Fold:
Amino acid sequence: MREHGGNLDQAQQRFGGRAEDWIDLSTGINRLPYPVGGVSVRAWSALPSRYEIDALHQAAQHAYRTSAPVVAMGGAQAAIQLLPQLAPRGRARILAPTYNEYAPVLSAAGWEVEEVSELDALAGADLAIVVNPNNPDGRWYTPANLFALLPRVGRLVIDESFTDAVPHLSLASEAVRPGLVILRSFGKFYGLAGLRLGFALGHADDIAKLAAMSGPWPVSGAAIAIGCRALRDDDWAKATSARLARDSVRLDAMVQSQGLRLVGGTPLFRLYEMPDALAAQEKLASAQIWSRVFVQQPTWLRLGLPGDESEWSRLAEVLAR
Structure:
C-alpha cells in the first residue's frame, strides 16, 4: 500500500495506545462529521433499487450544483481505479506533486505517465489530471483557467475531493462538456470516510462507461440513505464550510506561533514547513496526535483540523512544550 494519511495502525505500532485514544490529524477528513441519524433496516438488508441509486445521483447533482450525469462509487478512489479504461492507452500527464495514486494506477494499465509542475505543461496529453485544490499543498486554479485547458487535451480529469468547503473552485457545472470528468469525495467534507462514497460527473458517454464498469450495486444501501440526507442538507454544509474556514485560520495561528511556516492547504488540512518534520511528528505522537509526513519532502508536515475543543486543547498543549 502506498503512503497515505489515516495510517493510524502504524502510529499504534510505534507509540502504543488504542485507536480511540488518538487524534488522527493525518488526513483531510472533517473530525466533526455529519450527524448520521437512524438508518432503516431495509437499507442494510435489501439490495439497493435503481430508484434509490437515482435518488442519490439527484442529491449529488443538487449538492454540486450541476445537471451533468453522475455515477456513485465506493469513494473517489474507486473512480481513479477505472480511469485507465475510459479511453485507449496513451500519454497521461499529472500536475504534481499531488495525490500519489494516479501515476501508479495509470502506469500499471500501460499508460505513458509524465508528472509536470505547471498547468500549461498538461497541454497535448491524451489524459490530463489536476487535483483542485491540490493535495497536499492546497494549490488551486480558477474554473476559468481549468476550462481553458479542456480543448488542449484529450480528456481532462479534475479531482475535486477537497472542493466542498470552497465551492467557487468547482467546475462541476460544466461537467456536461465532452472530455471533462469531475471526481468528488463524499467522506472528507462530511467526515464519513468509512462510508466509502464518492462520485464521478461528466459527459453522458463517460459516465455510462464508468457506471457499466462499476456494476449494478456500486454503493451500499446505507451509503445511499446517508448520502441522500447529507447532500441535501444545505444548512449543515453552509455552517460547516464557515466553521472550517475559521478553524483553518485558528490552526495556522497556533502552529505559526511556534515558528513553523505555512506552505498552503485547504479548509480541511494545512501543510507546514520545518527543519525536521519527522521529529515534529514524533513529538505530536508522544501526545497521541497523529500527523502526516512525506518521504520525498522531509520538511513538510500536514495537519488536519482538530474537531471538538478537547482536541484543540491537546494540540495546543503539545505545541507549546
